[in-house]
Predict the 3D structure of the following.
Amino acid sequence: MTNYEEFIQSKRIVVNPSGFDVDPAGINPMLFEFQRDIVRWALRKGKAACFLDCGLGKTPIQLEWARQVAMHTGGDVLILAPLAVAAQTAREGEKFGVHVTVCRTADDLRPGINIVNYERLHYFTPERFSGIVLDESSILKAFGGSLRKEITEFASGIPYRLAATATPAPNDLIELTNHAEFLDVMSGKEIIALFFTQDGNTTHQWRLKAHARDDFWRWMSSWSVAMRKPSDLGYEDDGFILPPCNVNQQIVDVDAFQSGMLFAVEAVGLDEQRKARRASLDNRVEEAARLVNGNDESWLVWCDLNDESAALAKAIPDAIEVKGSDTAEHKEDAMLGFADGRYRVIVTKPSIAGFGMNWQHCANVVFVGLSHSYEQYYQAIRRSWRFGQKRPVNVHIITSVADGMVTDNIQRKEKQAMDMFDNIVRHMSVTSEVHQTEHNEMTYAEDVATGEDWTLYLGDSIKTIDKIASDSIGFSIFSPPFPGMYAYTNSAHDIGNSTHIDEMIEHFSYLVAPEKLMRIMMPGRMVAIHLMQLTAMKNRDGYIGVKDYRGRVIKMMEDAGWVYAGEVTIDKNPQIQATRNKERGLLFKTLATDSSLMRMALADYLIYFRKPGDNPQPIQAGISSKYNPGAGWITEEEWIEWAAPVWYRMTKDYPGGIRETDVLNVRQAKETDDERHLCPLQIGVIERAVKLWSAPGDTVYSPFAGVGSEGYVSLMHNRKFIGGELKESYFRSAIRNLESAVRERGGRTLFSLMAAD
């Protein structure tokens, strides 16, 4: 085992450069200064992402990066690109003096830089390539997509990797995990555990933990560069000022009865949206044709449905139509022909031609139908509205009243995308990243508070435990953090801030070691640990099931020399658990759809361990005259109940059970909504354990004091208490609760003090 400081250092997130340095004089002089610097930064990183807005030169950056990798390694580089972009990239390469071979199969490969459409990746093997570039890498966005998996696996053995797109996470920030996985920065499971929490009442939506937001963006800036304009990174914007983009939304009239509705209102469900869109099709196409046929300028006409495309091609005589069913040859000829001016109007879908093409010659854009994809909408506009465009771009969005939900959704995603760029750019400017390599975690605060019969340390308990005298603790009870579930600080010192269960157990083991917890406990005395098993989720762990956290902790304690003395199961309400966690295995609908994925509710456990040796001060807890006359406080009836293997929850038929909601008020300690799941150990559980395994006057210890639940109960039952807590807001709340316990046990309640006043 490494020493503790070395272990903490290993938990810090470090993105180590794996590339090489290039002399600035060796970079293509045709590139702008910011492009040259980004190329050098990406080469130094070895594996990097460029999230650059459209028109900032992703193509020349990719080409120069690929050229440098090919020269440095003496190997070949593969560029993956959307359809028709390959030929355009080859053209662009000639302008910069870089030869690019357009390939259809492996037989076409030539030494140097090769480019192929994503759809043809299966024709190639990775062993030949020393570098790989993903042009329009947002193709990775599908978290569980087969193409994402194919690309990531293909690239896994390639040492140099570059990803480039203007829309890295068009739908949800969780999509950024796919870029990190492709670049081998961190696995998606680790990213989710470290930075994300389930959003609201669903297991399928994730959002950044409040305390981890800044750290997440700093981490992002250690392997990616983001830019909407050169001045974002401190360069001059000369030549990169966008012309105006005039967006005009036109809402056409629709016959409500035609759409199947009594009145023309916003469609809610997908079926309603489809019906409403078909009902308004003729009107929308007619309006688009009026605009396009009204002049002889170039027009880029976007649609969403096949029927829209066919109707538009018929209504606009000189338009070239590009459909999904067309041959690759036709698609390529049409898109390049539109770029060259051979075709005045192109009618197609953003999903077909919305990525990678440079159509700055066109300043007129019309949408005749919108999907819910912000990425497609944004990329479609940026085919024309991009750096290099000399004229104002006019965008016409032709919708019906029923499309309101679609436009609202796009606007929401647009705001999210802008926020993402803002955050990456801000943290890059703060950290000067085009250089930063390390994620700087918070330095935790240290403090100590004392009161009558209690001491509370603020800080890392693995360090503060050294301040406690040997053989001084009569009983220890605590509920440790759960890996990947409840991490409420960004500190590497937080045991719960672990990316996986193995790291959590390793961290935990430092606390229970012979020189730590074992040292301070009296011989023969008990340590009680409250925990539960952990669920495994498909999107976080790769499978659906249960992880044996309980078993891992038992083994950890035994390895440290503790005697496993037993356990008690704590009953829980399955309905409350299902409602709170929304876990698929607990939902009734799982029983109806596939019961093989169903599971039972997870109980809590109180597992207890004994320090080897003879107890120097026997605990006389029993009241029976046969044993300890007058010395204890547990009745024989209580003992019969408490000796049972299950401590049942309180119900109307069993009022003596554990009340699940009988916990200290934690609202005052919560800093963010992420802590809505904070569940201190129930008072009833602590009371039973304290009365069973300690005596009045004993000192009780909790290294995870939280809001002070264990200390509160211990003081109320005439014990002393020592605790440790890492999070400052909990520390302050615990102080208040410990002070309250001292007042209450002495009869000095809040009400009596008020009466005295």
Q: What stands out?
A: The CA atoms of residues 457 and 467 lie 10 Å apart. The first helix runs from residue 4 to 11.
